[in-house]
Amino acid sequence: MAASTGPPAPGVVMAGTAARRLAVAGNPNAGKTTLFNALTGLRHHVGNYPGVTVERREGRANWEGVEHILLDLPGTYSLSAHSPDEQIARDVLLGRVDGTPAPDGALVVVDAGNLERNLYLATQILDLGLPAVIACNMMDVVSQRGTRLDLGALGRELGAAVVGTVGTRGDGLAALRRKLFELPSAAAPRDLSWLPSHLRREVNAVTAALRRESACRPEAAEGLAMLLLAEADSSAGGVDWIHAGVRAALRAAAKRLRAEGVSDAASALVEARYAWIASIVDRAVRSERRIDADTPSDRIDHVLTHRLWGLLIFAGLMFLMFLSIFAWAEPLMRFIERGQGLLQAAVRGALPAGPLRDLLADGLIGGAGSVVVFFPQICILFLFIAVLEDSGYMARAAFLMDRLMSRVGLHGKSFIPLLSSYACAVPGIMATRTIENPRDRLTTILVAPLMSCSARLPVYLTVIAAVFGTNVWLKTGVVFSMYALGTITALLLAAAFKRTLLAGPTPTFIMELPLYHLPRPWPIVRAMWDRSRLFLTRAGTTIVAVCVVLWALAYFPRNTAAEQRAEEHRQALATRAARPGIDSTAAGPSPVLRVRPDEIEHELAGEQLRQSYLGRLGRAIEPVLRPLGFDWRVGVGVLASFAAREVFVSTMGVVYNAGGAADGTATLRQRMQQSRWETGPSRGRPIFSTAAGLSLMIFYVFCCQCVSTLAVVRRETNSWRWPAFMFTYMTALAYVMSLGVYQLGRVLGGLS
Amino acid sequence: MSSAPRFKAIIHSGKMNSDDGICAVADLTVGQTARVVSIGGTADVQRRLREMGLTDGAAVRLVRVAPLGDPIELAVRGYRLSIRRSEAARVSVVRLIPDPPVDDTTATPATVSP
Asked: Do B61 and B31 contact (CB within 8 A), yes or no?
């Protein structure tokens, strides 16, 4: 075990106590994160690299008084710049990322059961001249297969220390720590004799140019030269920071190679590297079986990707996901709501009446509550996603669904994020991180909020109750239509975005199907918590701020006349309660007495909201909303919904003097049914006609009324441009569709 | 494709069937093993496929086809790789005489030392 977190022993040279920085790299599914967690314990910092949404995970470890900062690089298959992940991994290793100093060494995690492909990345990293340790992970799988791995020979061939580990069991960790934390400060020069002579010559030429221009550490020059040569003809990524002299050397090298008949230097380099790796593996591995023989995972896949059973099991798992959200999250949500209520009551009891008390109780606690209430759902979704990822099933889900998604130009990996968005778009959008292609990822993010989330359901149900009554078949049919409408539009728009706004070369689907393994509880809980916490800390603050603003709009200006009237009523009621002899009907000429105290409060709240800035705003935009069939009261509900959609129900409750609580539903339904247009040509006719009800629900299907979603999109795309675009297109779409439906309904007459 | 000098690729037992010409990896039947001859497509796709181990001379086996007909699953270099038919159509292979199916579990070369 690592020694101690104590102070450095006296006598240790202070210059040496500056923390050493180590990069942890490896292929996806090689067990990199498990080893990283084991080495760093709980001391993590999760963030993003500047300008991109690649997760940056940093941890610390102490070894004999020397602090080590470990940086978990994104899992990649190579260092060429196919994806932002690969670009970041390469640039970090070269010390080219702002705010991330060049590492002093590297830990490369390779999957011992999949050595050839894993060594491709590992040797690319070693060629960058960093002192490095290779952790040959998952040695247990290797021995189960009856393969013998000569780690000493492997280390000699690769020119680096090799340690065998089983990350899930902690085997080999002590040896790994010793090797890693006592890495020499410089690596031995690389032996590039495996390169065929003509490639070697060009690598040397580019290396010389890199060293002349001091484009990188001198030891990294050869490795970088190979990466650059392989990228000369690439359309993707590229290195934008190399100097003109190096570019000239690259062009000259490509020209010479073409003259010798090598048109594709990239492929030639890959071929040469793999040939070298194959010769290494040949010397270090003794296998008693063909390496592509059927594995236990293949036998599991026989069922899980079966033409019939595979699809049925997949559907069942997705059903289970939603079931668990409704079965587990709802009690927790009620629990949170109750806690919020208690807290609000405590604040009201502790503080004198006034704006400060209401700001704390309704603005802040209410706003925070609207974030926290979705936390259980988000946790459960992330838990599910973490289980699917950790077990290896996530890749199978993409394998099963890719055909469907490719029809609209998306990737199989877009399926789960879109499906999760039926519960809540926030985890759905955060789950798009597994999609490597930035265009695919952005397309998925842009259409995810069109999937009807659970916050829309109460809105649909409220409107349906007011417009279509309680027929269960009709109700189900309408709700189903709304879900279908959102889904179909999402898919159509994804196809449209891929052809226009986010047009580009057809993305490829080149995906590893990793071995299955039993999901491990601790890493899953950890993955779930890391992501859920990001939602609270990053999105939460924005959401609370917007909720407070909306609260203030509904709270000010105070309606003193109404408050006074309500106070008189309260007193009259109290007086009457004190003299029970007098019958309420015999109360004489006194003002219309409310029979129940809560009705006084409901009326006061209603009057207050109607007179508030929000109420005035609702009246101001009525001309704009009238063509959709919404009067100013619905307008107030729509405006308030920008905090979160389900707020519509409580706002309508307040507007119609039915109280904001959910138990007002029956009253609310009646009041909504009775409400009439106050002005205009349809004055006196009911507001909630069939056409208006459909228009309102369709508005909620499309409109981007969710601060949480916008805050998360801002976070995931690192700019306000995309949330602004999303907000604009969704709101415009909502307006146009609702307008169409309402006007069509009016023309058809029977509906309006 | 690339006319770089060829290296002796590590391939598995199996002889070339001279009757069988070159075909796309997408045209193999499930369970069939073949050797990569060339890779087409854009430079980026080519490089990505090669980086994932589908190099000239590498042995591949078509493991299965997804339930909806696309993508397909290949065994290459001891792991499982999934690619779409559109990419698989550009990977030319030459079929190897299929090994007897029992080979997967019973073949035990003499070099073994448990």
From this structure: yes
Q: Are B87 and A291 a contacting pair at CB < 8 A?
A: no
Mean pLDDT within A217-245: 77
Return d(Cα B77, Cα B60) in angstroms, integer.
8
What is the rounded distance in angstroms from the CA atom of residue A693 to the CA atom of residue A482?
Answer: 12
Backbone angles phi, psi at B23, to 5 degrees: -140, 175
Chain-chain contact of B80 with A513 (C-beta, under 8 angstroms)? yes
A475 Cβ partners below 8 Å, 6+ apart? A461, A464, A468
Cis peptide preceding A296, ω within 30 of 0: no
Distance CA A235, CA A257 (A): 19
A67: which 2 tokens? Answer: 């602090």
Residue A144's pLDDT band (cuts 50, 70, 90): confident
Q: Are strands A285-286 and A148-149 parallel, antiparallel or unpaired?
A: antiparallel
Query: Is residue A547 within 8 Å of residue A706, measured between CB atoms?
Result: no
Rounded to the nearest 10 degrees, the angle between the axes of helix A265-284 and helix A197-212 is 110
- Cα-based angle A411, A445, A320 (whole degrees, multiple of 5): 70
Residues 57 to 76 of B: which have CB under 8 A from any A CB? 58-59, 61, 63-64, 66-71, 73, 75-76
How many Å apart are CA A123 and CA A227, to the nearest integer? 12
Above 50 in pLDDT, residue B3?
no
Residues 6+ apart with CB under 8 A from A464: A474, A475, A478, A479, A693, A697
> Strand A132-137 vs strand A105-111: parallel, antiparallel, or unpaired?
parallel
CA-CA distances (angstroms) from residue A211 to A208, A230, A416?
5, 18, 47
Is A122 a residue whose pLDDT tops 80?
A: yes
- Classified as helix, coil or strand, A13 is coil
Q: How far is B93 from chain A (nearest CA, A)?
A: 16
Q: Report the alpha-carbon distance of residue A345 to residue A362 in Å, rounded.
A: 10
Look at strands A66-72 and A105-111 and give their pairing: unpaired
Query: Among B31, B49, B29, which residue's Cα sits nearest to residue B39?
Result: B49
Q: At A426, is the pLDDT very low, low, confident or very high (cuts 50, 70, 90)?
A: confident
Q: Mind giving me the DSSP string for B17-34? A: -TTS-EEEGGGSPTT-EE
| Degrees to nearest 5, angle at CA A254 with A248 and A258 | 145
Give the tokens for residue A95. 């010390």
Nearest CA in chain B to A232: B43
- In angstroms, how far apart are the furthest CA atoms of chain A? 113
Residue B45 with chain A: CB contacts under 8 Å: 508, 510
Cα(A186)–Cα(A105) distance, integer angstroms: 9
Give B44→chain A minimum CA distance, Å: 6
DSSP single-letter state for residue A40: H
**CA distance linking residue A651 with residue A639, whole number of Å:** 10
Q: Helix H segments across A407-513? A: 415-420, 425-430, 438-447, 457-467, 472-499
Residue A14 is classified by DSSP as G
Distance CA A600, CA A574 (A): 12
Cβ contacts of A147 within 8 Å, gap of 6 or more: A113, A285, A286, A287, A288, A289
* Residues with Cβ within 8 Å of residue B77, at least 6 apart in sequence: A114, A116, A117, A291, A292, B53, B58
Nearest alpha carbon to residue A20 among A57, A67, A52: A67
- Chain-centre distance for alpha carbon A138: 29
| Joined tokens for residue A749 | 């007459």
Instruction: Identify which of A263, A281, A509 has the shortest CB distance to residue B2.
Output: A263
Is the Cβ–Cβ distance between B70 and A403 less than 8 Å?
yes
pLDDT of A359 above 60: yes
